[in-house]
Specification:
Layout lengths: L11 E3 L13 E4 L7 E3 L4 E8 L6 E6 L5 E7 L1 E2 L3 H12 L4 E3 L7 E2 L4 E4 L10 E7 L4 E3 L16 E9 L5 E2 L5 E4 L2 E3 L2 E3 L4 E14 L13 E6 L2 E7 L2 E3 L6 H4 L2 H7 L4 E2 L20 E3 L4 E9 L5 E10 L15 E7 L2 E7 L8 E5 L2 E5 L3 E2 L4 E6 L7 E4 L2 E3 L3 E5 L5 E4 L3 E5 L8 E8 L2 E4 L10 E5 L12 E6 L6 E4 L1 E3 L2 E6 L3 E7 L5 E7 L4 E6 L5 E8 L2 E8 L4 E5 L10 E8 L4 E7 L1
Parallel strand pairs: 18-25
Antiparallel strand pairs: 1-2, 2-11, 3-10, 4-5, 4-8, 4-9, 5-6, 6-11, 7-10, 11-12, 12-21, 13-15, 13-18, 14-18, 16-17, 18-22, 18-23, 19-20, 19-24, 24-25, 26-27, 27-31, 28-29, 28-32, 30-31, 32-33, 34-37, 35-36, 36-39, 37-38, 38-44, 39-43, 40-41, 40-44, 42-43, 45-46, 46-49, 47-48, 47-50, 48-49, ...
Pfam family, one: Peptidase_M23
InterPro entries: Cell_wall_metabolism_enzyme, Dup_hybrid_motif, M23ase_b-sheet_dom
Protein name: M23 family metallopeptidase
Length: 599
């Protein structure tokens, strides 16, 4: 049975298959009217096999295992139903910890279909009151909840196709005579979508799409379950987001165009399967969705989108094959310019020339010099393409201008590799990378750079930073921080040894070493015989631990990080809070605040 207001129409704020920043959304998000406290019902007979209380992730969450082997998950609860709530509280007092996960024996907590298992909330990583509901199997494979066709959810609205992109995937690949990625806006034409303008291409091409699905009477943009791509009537790509192993959910970073998501906040799903993508959602097809456009050909492309209720959207357009040609530049710059970028295995060099005759770019690999011919013209100059698998260039020169790509080493995926220089050391594990990485490192003032944050990691890397000058003061308070956008500083931690600090991270990009000597701040909000509450914040490394004692005895503090709020919960509700209050709060750098008062 449906876990919220069974028998009545319900509305979703999220469905399976949505692209989240670091994972596929693995269930459905059921709206609770913008408030907490709605009863949450057991979907079927079962027993509590696992439940957890936390300020992060799923927050307060219950896992029910059912006789058929399926597991239902109820997350972000405001509170648990009895008797599991009382059992959790006792265990928290025994362990003197708020964050706690329990796995009771099979026969301890049994629930019948329709029993209240908890109450809807906004705990953990939730962005508003709702119930996150999942259905898994015994191997933690997350199923699309809507495959069970709950009558409480109504959907007869087909998906909406927002934007498509065509990307060149080989050195001879071109879209409208250029090696790049181009976005196009589909337009509605009768019962299907199409493009207003003609598209010309050559070589190996990949298609990406940004789409969403809406359900009846709800404005939320949900995920699309099924995507099929045909070229000239042949299926070249197909995916169906209906069952995803929980441990592979992070591979969403390979399913989407990760760089576009990070740069522009747009979730483009690739309609081709990159190397390193191990998700089990794809049909086996030739070239894994990458299709080749021959010169002088006419290629009919059809993209079909379906939601969980089989509402269908169709997009049709034609790609005309055109052999790459070199056309003269329209403008001449006042002085020569040279720039480059790396797209997978291809080095793309852009040279803007003042001369009327197009000149070559020179590549230096060791003592050898190679003349790199122009591949095609741009408005201001020419583009020269080079396959990095032919050798890593030390420098690129053009008209007296020199650029050093700074590629330190080729790092293949699927194997362990250690890299060390004077500033950094990186250990890649076999599961760290999705695909080959052209490793670049640099040090600029206080920043250590390892490639960029637009390249995803699947598993962690071991990162060692070697500062030329050690931080002043107590080294135990200095740690590695990941520098994302703007002035953001995310604590990564680290251990010092022989003048270097080592940590594990799932990020590439800029890192810095910062020293945190400021203890957390504590503000008393309320105190009486029933409850005491605090606002607790830390300005840099973040909270590591906290402990409350009243009259020398442990008192449980619950924590809501989104509000920086801590409040007490008594084990025995009849015993008043009374005596000296001592709250100890420590951050990740070891700075401690001891706050004292009396009740």
């Amino acid at each position: 049975m449906f876990p919220i207001k069974p028998g009545q129409q319900n509305f979703l704020s999220g469905s399976m298959g949505e692209i989240r920043p670091s994972h596929f959304h693995g269930g459905i998000d059921i709206k609770t009217g913008g408030v907490t406290g709605w009863p949450v019902y057991a979907a079927a007979d079962g027993y509590v096999s696992r439940y957890k209380q936390s300020s992060y992730g799923y927050g307060n969450v219950v896992y029910l295992t059912h006789p058929n082997g399926l597991v239902t998950v109820y997350a972000h609860l405001e509170r648990f139903a009895e008797p599991i709530a009382a059992f959790m509280l006792r265990k928290q007092y025994e362990n003197q910890a708020f964050e706690l996960e329990l796995k009771p024996e099979k026969d301890i907590f049994k629930f019948k279909k329709g029993d209240i298992i908890g109450y809807g909330g906004n705990t953990g990583g939730s962005g508003g009151p709702h119930l996150h509901f999942e259905i898994r199997d015994k191997d933690d494979v997350q199923y699309n909840v809507l495959r069970f066709r709950f009558p409480e959810i109504v959907d007869n609205i087909p998906p909406t196709l927002n934007t498509i992109a065509l990307k060149t995937l080989s050195i001879d690949g071109r879209v409208n005579n250029q090696f790049d990625r181009f976005e196009f806006t589909p337009v509605k034409s009768g019962t299907f979508y199409t493009l207003k303008d003609s598209v010309f291409a050559h070589g190996l091409i990949g298609l990406e799409m940004m789409a969403f699905d809406r359900l009846n009477n709800a404005e939320n943009k949900n995920g699309v379950q099924k995507v099929d791509l045909t070229v000239n009537g042949k299926v070249v790509y197909s995916h169906y987001i209906d069952a995803i192993p929980h441990e592979k959910s992070r591979q969403v970073s390979c399913h989407i165009n990760y760089e576009v998501l990070k740069r522009y906040g747009k979730s483009f799903e690739k309609c081709y399967v990159d190397d390193g993508n191990g998700l089990p959602i794809y049909a086996q097809t030739y070239q894994k969705g990458k299709f080749f456009i021959k010169p002088n050909s006419k290629n009919e492309v059809v993209l079909t989108l379906k939601d969980a209720y089989q509402n269908t959207t169709t997009f049709r357009f034609t790609i005309y094959g055109r052999k790459p040609v070199f056309e003269g530049t329209a403008k001449k710059p006042k002085k020569p310019q040279l720039d480059y970028e790396i797209s997978e295995n291809i080095l793309k060099v852009t040279a803007n020339d003042t001369a009327s005759q197009v000149r070559n770019v020179e590549l230096y690999i060791g003592r050898l010099k190679y003349n790199l011919l122009p591949s095609y013209a741009t408005e201001n100059g020419s583009v020269h393409l080079y396959d990095l698998r032919g050798g890593i260039p030390d420098s690129i020169t053009f008209c007296g201008i020199s650029r050093k790509p700074g590629i330190r080493q080729i790092v293949p995926s699927g194997q362990e590799l250690n890299y060390t220089d004077n500033n950094v050391s990186v250990v890649f594990q076999p599961n760290s990378l999705y695909d080959t990485l052209y490793l670049k490192t640099a040090v600029d003032k206080e920043f250590f750079t390892v490639n960029d944050m637009f390249t995803p990691l699947y598993g962690p890397i071991k990162l060692t930073l070697k500062p030329q000058t050690l931080p002043a003061g107590d080294l135990s308070k200095a740690a590695v921080y990941f520098a994302g956008w703007g002035k953001s500083r995310n604590f990564e931690g680290g251990k010092w040894e022989n003048g270097a600090i080592t940590t594990y991270t799932k990020n590439l990009g800029k890192f810095r070493i910062l020293t945190d000597t400021t203890a957390p701040t504590v503000k008393l909000l309320m105190k009486n015989k029933d409850v005491i509450s605090f606002r607790v914040r830390d300005d840099l490394s973040g909270l590591a631990s906290y402990k409350l004692e009243i009259d020398g005895k442990f008192v449980l503090l619950k924590f809501e990080h989104k509000k920086a709020l801590m409040w007490s919960e008594k084990l025995d509700k009849k015993v008043p809070l009374s005596g000296e209050v001592v709250l100890r709060v420590k951050d990740n750098a070891g700075n401690e605040t001891v706050y004292k008062t009396k009740i």
